[in-house]
Design goal:
73 residues; mainly alpha; elongated
């Protein structure tokens, strides 16, 4: 059940995953801001999820454009 995927299709899939991770990152960071006053624990959990998606997005950024992104920011 393995598909053979050419490099163009693989790049399309990586870019699609990178976009999705970016949207999830924004969603969870916004959710964290919404919860800060009423649910500090929930806000922290949402922020952690946001950072997780950020890490995924940054890793995919580096695959798509190696060396272009500042690794330390």
């Amino acid at each position: 059940m393995t598909d053979v995927v050419d490099s163009d299709e693989l790049l399309r899939r990586i870019r699609r995953a990178r976009s999705w991770a970016g949207r999830e990152e924004q969603t969870w960071m916004a959710r964290s801001e919404e919860l800060k006053t009423g649910d500090p624990h929930g806000a922290h959990e949402a922020e952690l999820r946001g950072h997780t998606y950020e890490a995924v997005r940054r890793a995919l950024d580096e695959i798509v454009s190696p060396g272009v992104h500042d690794v330390d920011d």
